[in-house]
Amino acid sequence: MARSQKNKNMKKLLLIIAVTICISVVFSSCGNQKPKSLTTATIVEDSIFGKEFSLTVDYSLSFEQMVGVGVYDFQNAVIHFDDFPTPVVLVGKKIEIKARLFHFDQDVSSEDAIKQLNKKGYRLASSFELLTVGKKYPDWQCYFPIIAFGSIWRDTTDFTTTYLDCEHGKRWLTIDGCNNNWSKYSRFLAIRK
To answer: What are the start-end ranges of the E strands in 118-158?
Structure first.
């Protein structure tokens, strides 16, 4: 029985390592896709939504349970709960973090946004952290899409990331390609390092 549990824990650890490597590969490949028409965007200081705020991420909940408590009107059918395992080292914990929404002055490539978030001393937010924002501040996504680059996986055609959006008052949990340009109306969720 103990050996079986060790094997399960080892598989989870290997999965986390594999996901980390994939994220590194994705972000390095994003730079090769940058459109020539975009100049470097700059961060807009937003006095309302641009302030740092506290979040408590509850890792005792699975991704599926977090989606449930977020009460989304629509969930993209491509999102599979198994694609978002709870990180083994965080299972059962509640983690307090400092988060911020970043906004750019023009449409921005994924590569540009990621570089600028890093320069400001923030890391990319995970889907668990995104869902925590969706639960705590459900109306925010109706003002602007909220993107979390910290959880990326490959679907059949592209590397994708999760984001929250709203259409006609309906709250969405959806995905889009990592190599996209994001509207200047988007906000990027980032976590203080």
So the answer is: 122-124, 146-154
- One-letter amino acid at 137 equals Y
d(CA 189, CA 131): 11
Domain ranges of the chain: 2-192
Rounded to whole angstroms, the Cα distance separating 116 from 120 reads: 6
Which candidate, 148, 180, 184, 177, places its Cα nearest to that of 164? 148
**How far is 55 from 1, CA to CA, in rounded Å?**
37
pTM: 0.75
Q: Tell me how far apart the alpha carbons of residues 161 and 138 are, in angstroms, rounded to a whole number.
A: 19
What does the pLDDT read at residue 2?
A: 56
The separation between CA 97 and the C-alpha centre of its own chain, rounded to angstroms, equals 14
CA dist., res. 176 & res. 90, Å (int): 26
Please give the radius of gyration of the chain, using alpha carbons only, rounded to the nearest integer. 17
Task: State the Cα torsion 14-16-20-21 to the nearest 10°.
Answer: 20
- Do 169 and 78 meet the contact criterion of CB atoms below 8 Å apart? no
The 10s digit of each residue's pLDDT in 65-113 is 999 999 999 887 777 777 778 888 899 999 999 999 999 999 998 888 8
Provide the pairing of β-strand 170-177 with 74-75. parallel
**pLDDT tens per residue across span 151-193:** 777 666 667 788 999 999 999 998 777 667 888 999 999 999 9
DSSP 8-state assignment for residue 32: G
